[in-house]
Automatic annotation (TrEMBL):
Belongs to the protein kinase superfamily. AGC Ser/Thr protein kinase family. S6 kinase subfamily. The keyword Nucleotide-binding applies. The active site is at D218 (proton acceptor), D572 (proton acceptor). GO terms for biological process: intracellular signal transduction. Keywords: ATP-binding, Kinase, Nucleotide-binding, Phosphoprotein, Repeat, Serine/threonine-protein kinase, Transferase. This is Ribosomal protein S6 kinase. It comes from the Eukaryota. ATP binds at residues 99-107, 125, 461-469, 484. Residues 93-351, 455-712 form the Protein kinase domain. It comes from Lutzomyia longipalpis (Sand fly). Residues 352-420 form the AGC-kinase C-terminal domain.
Amino acid sequence: MEMESPNQYNNRRERGMMTNDETFPSLTSSSTEHLNGVVSQEDVEMVVDDAFDPLPHEENHYVTSEDVQMKEREIELKDVVKEGHDKADPSQFELLRVLGEGSFGKVFLVRKIVGKDAGTLYAMKVLKKATLKVKDRVRSTNERNILADVGHAFIVKLHYAFQTPGKLYLILDFLRGGDLFTRLSKEVMFTEEDVKFYLAELALALNHLHSIGIIYRDLKPENILLDQDGHIALTDFGLSKQPLDGSKTYSFCGTVEYMAPEVVNRKGHHFAADWWSFGVLMYEMLTGNLPFHGATRQETMNQILKTKLGMPDNLSPEAQSLLRVLFKRNPQNRLGAGPSGIEDIKKHEFFATIDWNALVAKQVRPPFIPAVSRDDAFYFDTEYTSKSPRDSPGGPVSASAHEIFRGFSFVAPGLLDDAGMPLSNGSAGAGALPPKLPFTNEIPGVKPGAFCDEYNLMQELGRGTFSICRLCEHKTTRKQYAAKIISKSGHDCREEVEILLRYGNHPNIVTLFGVHEDNSYVYLVMELLKGGELLDRILTIQRMSETEASAVLRTVVSAVSYLHEHGVVHRDLKPSNLLYASVQQTPESLKLCDLGFAKQLRADNGLLMTPCYTANFVAPEVLKRQGYDLACDIWSLGVLLYIMLEGKTPFASTPNDSPEMILNRIGSGQIDTDSGRWKTVSSEVKELLRHMLHIVPQKRPTAAQILRHPWLWQPPSDANRPSADVQYIQHQQNMASGVGVQVRDQTAALRGAVNATFRAIASPQAANVGPVGMSELAKRRARDKSANSQV
C-alpha cells in the first residue's frame, strides 16, 4: 500500500478544505494541534451549510415555514447540570489554556475549582451571542440539546451548559489525544486491523445517535477525537438533525468530500447519509486519499453523483466488499439503511474478528496510544496556570498578547557547570551554546524554556553520558520530582520523550509529568523513585530468594512485554535502570527507567507502525533488526535473573574484564548453573534461564511467553534459606565489623563486573557475537571436511 508522507497528507487535506465555506476564519491558536481538547480545528468554524440560503429555483419548495420562523425567533438555552453536582457558572472554572478560537468564540482548557469535581480538567466552549447569526444560534442550541440527551462510550460527554447575558458555555470532556487523523497522520501508519477497530467504535456511536432519532451529518476525521487510552469520541453536533416523525431533511450541510449523493442533490436525506460518510472515512483511512476530490467544490460534487469509484488492488476482498455496499448511490440499497440497521454492518465479513460486546465495554485494546501529557495543571503554560480563578473566560487576555512576552524572563542558574557540562543558554557565560532548533516541537505539551521559573534544582541523583539527573521541587506545590537534564549537543531525546508520554501509563514504567526545553537542554520532569536501584538491593542481600526473584522478574517482564507488544524495544535493560518507587523495596513497586536507548518500530517514511503492521508492510531487514532487538532485551533479562539468583554476573569476573573477553564468554554459550549456589536452585528456573540466555536470538522466548512461565507465579519454597531481612541484617553487621572493608570491596567489584557486562553488550563488537558453529572458521572447517570426505 502506498502511503503519503505526513506533509503530503496534510497539504492534501488543506487543499480539500479550501473548497468549503471561507466566510468563517479558522483557528488561530498555535497550541490547538499540540494540546487538543474536545474541540477540533473546525469545531469553532462553520463549513458548507446553506440551510437558510435560497435553494435553486427548481427546489425552492423544500424550504419550509419552520425554516423561516427559525430565522426570526429568539433561541432558548436551558442549563445543564452534571448529575450529583451543583449548577455551574464561569467563576467555577480556572482558565488554563486556549485550545482554539474563531470569530464568534473560543475553546479553553479549564480546571474546575469548586464542587465535587474540583480539580477536573474540562474543555470549555464559549460562544459570544452577539456574533452568532440566527442559524449559528440554532446550531448551538441543537448541539447542547443533543449532547444533553446522548450518553455513550464513544460520544463526547456534556457535563455542564449555562449562559450569561453575553455568552453561551458548554463544558465538555477534555480529550487529550486530539483528533484522529491530525494525530495519527503524523505518527502512525494504518493497517486494516487499525481501521477495523476505529470504524467499529464509530459504528456503535452512529447507531446510538440513529436509535434516538439523530442524523449526525458532519462525519469527518476532525470530529473524531481520541481519549488518552486511544478510544474514539465523536464530537461537534452543531450540524446534527433530529427529523420529525421519521421524515427526510433537506439541508445542504457538512463538508463536501464526505457528503452523500442525496445530500448533494438536495432531494432529502435520512440516516443512510451517515453510512455513506462512514464509507468515505474508511476509504481515506485505508488509502490515505479521499474517494471523491475534485479541483473545485462543484467538480467534487459531480464526482460524488456520477463518477464510478475504482477499488485499490491492495485492499483485502473484505474491505473492498464493505466499501462497495456503503457506496450505494441509492440510499435504500446502502448497508446500514435496511430494517436491521447496524446489525447488517456488524455481520459483514470485514468485522468478523470484532467482539462487539467487549468493544462497547472498552475491553478491546486500541491499536495506538497517543503521546499525551499528564493531567497535572503545572504541565501547561504558567502564563495560564498562574491566573487567579477570578480571571474567567468572560474577558481573557488574548493568546497573542502573551506570545509577545514569551521568553522574556532571564535565568542564570548554572545548572550543569559543576558536572563538566555546558552552562545553560540562559546564563551570561561566554561559552554558552548557540541556539538549537527545538527537539520536541512536534510533541504535545512541551514547554519552551523557563524551567527554573517553575522548579528549584537540588542535589544530583545520578548521571549518564549525555545527561544528569537531579532532584527538583515545584515552587508552587513543593512536590519533589526527578529532573533528567539532557544536553542537546550530544543526544536527541525525542524518541525517549515520545515513548514515555505514550507508554508511561504502565504501572511499572516511570511516569513523565512534564517536558521543558531551552536552547541547550531538554528537561524531563519525572516521578521521584525513592526506593533506590535494584542493583543496590542485590548487592545488599548478596543474592535473592527464588520467591523474591520471581516476583521481581514478573514485574519487570510485564513492563517489557507491554513495550514489545507496542513495537518498542528498550535496548538498555540492566539492574541500575530498575528503581523501586517504594522505600520498602517491594517487587511490585519496581519501575523501568532511562529509556534513552529505546526505539519504536518505524517504516522507511518515518511513521510509527503498530505491531500488526510488521507481517505485511515491513522490509525483511527491518523485521530482522526488530526481532534482534527484542531478543536482546530478553537476553538482558536473563543476565538480570542470573545476577539476582547467583549474586554475580555470568560472563564478567572483574570490573577490568575487557569487552572482548566478556563477548568471547558470551559467544561460547556456556553458563554455569550446576555448581556452588546453583545446587539449591530449582530446575524450573534453570531451564528458563538457559532459554533466555540462548546464544541464538531466535531461540529465546518472547516476553509474553516468559510472563506465562509457571516459575514466575509459583516458585518453590525458600523455607531453608535465610530471608532477605536476615541477609540485610547480616550485611549491616559485616559492614560495621572489621570485615566491612572487604565487603565494600566485594560490592564494588560486583558492581563493576555488572557494568562491564552491559558495556560489552552495548559495544559495536556485540553485533558479531554468535554461536561457534556460525563463525567463519567453523564454516570453513565444515567445507574442508566435506571436501575431504568426497576424495
